[in-house]
Amino acid sequence: MKTVLVTGSQGFIGSYVCTELLNKGYKVIGVDNYSKYGEVQRAHDTHEHFRLIECDVRCLSNHLDKLSDVEYIIAGAAMIGGISYFHKYAYDLLATNERILAETFDVAINLRLHGKLSKVVVLSSSMVFENTDVYPTPESEVEVSPPPLSTYGFQKLASEFFAKGAWEQYGIPYTIIRPFNCVGIGEEESLQDEEYYVGNHKLLMSHVLPDLIHKALTLGPNEKLPILGDGSQVRCYTNGKDIARGIVIAMESEKALNEDFNISTPTPTTVKELAQEIWSQLYPVGPQLDFEYQEPFMYDVQKRIPDVRKAEELLGFKTEISLSESVGEVIEWMKQKLVK
User: Fold this and answer.
1) pTM for the complete prediction?
2) What secondary structure does DSSP assign to 222-270, as a single string?
3) 16 near 187, Cβ under 8 Å?
4) Which residues of the chain have pLDDT under 50?
């Protein structure tokens, strides 16, 4: 059995990745310090082939003796949150995430020189395309579009150069993954999220889908659904199970050697269309949906639409889970959380 080190294993995407790896017969060493959500319980925690090193990734070198069998690293740990994070933690998003990446690659270099490491998979972000005007956006656009203006997007772009630099100097093979708008269950409320209210409704700022579902479930009579901006923002909402499957396929594939991939559904959806889908599932014969429009945040990018042909052609990867299925899944999960 091959061993994979997953940093940020207890996070939102990380937990999906751990489950996918374990289902495919890998041993998984997770690294997490529970800094985002607190000590959450994940489905993979009790699996016989999962082991957690509970520590800050910036201290990972202290645990090298436990990593001698690691053949792959999936570098997913990061300080990350919703759009409000880009303002509240503008410096920390850059400084903290750079330190996390530097330590991760220091460990990777050591394991490449003295262990069994064969590849590092870096989880970048669609935010590297923050300033593109090409849609759908191909991977090659990262080389020519203006750099991101947000410190988060800029740092994610820097994470890709960590991979390229480690390859150039130390010969560490890499694959860069850019997930687009992951949706699914397990996106808890961050301990650091800004408390932001519209009327009596606390907005869940980490991701738009649980935020809209929460508001739709708690609206009072004759209340309008609050949304940021005019609702025309376009995203490609991709189920976490699909993203995790794409990450593992790319990790395994020789065709992914030193390549970058957009991992996403190709289907664009506006925020208004997402809200309508939620509303129709919650209230199929209920009242008509109406909106209350709020001032958007500065870095609320209007469009994120990936070109996914490269992943299809080189990896044979396509997403399988529809937005309707994802919405239904998260609705049921959110209902259970509200009952608690």
Assistant:
1) 0.93
2) TPPEEEETTS--EE--EEHHHHHHHHHHHHH-GGGTTEEEEES-S--EE
3) no
4) 193, 195-203, 205
Specify the amino acid at residue 337. K
Token pair for residue 302?
Answer: 């209007």
Q: Residue 256's pLDDT is what?
A: 98
Q: 176: closest CA among 244, 71, 78, 259?
A: 259
Cα distances (angstroms) measured from residue 237 to each of 10, 52, 193, 315: 21, 29, 21, 20
Q: How many CB atoms lie within 10 A of CB 229?
A: 15
| 158: enclosing H helix or E strand | helix 151-170
Q: Partners of 329 in the beta sheet?
A: none
Query: What's 226's domain CATH number?
Result: 3.90.25
Distance CA(4)–CA(1), nearest Å, equals 10
pLDDT digits (tens, 9 = 90+) for 262-284: 999 999 999 999 999 999 999 99
Give, in degrees to the nearest 5, the angle at Cα 149 between 173 and 172.
5
Q: Is the CB of residue 236 less than 8 Å from the CB of residue 306?
A: yes
Identify whether residues 100 and 119 lie together within a single domain. yes
Distance, CA of 251 to CA of 255 (rounded, Å) = 10
Are 308 and 237 in contact by the 8 Å Cβ rule? The answer is no
Peptide bond into 136 cis (omega under 30): yes
135 and 95, same structural domain? yes
Residue 190: the pLDDT is 55
Residues of 247-275 as b/e, b for ≥16 C-beta within 10 angstroms? bbbbbbbeebeebbbbbbbbebbebbebb
**Residue 24: both structure tokens together:** 């495919």
Closest CA to 60 of 14, 29, 18: 29
Q: Are 166 and 120 in contact (CB under 8 A)?
A: yes
Residues 203 and 137 reside in one and the same domain: no
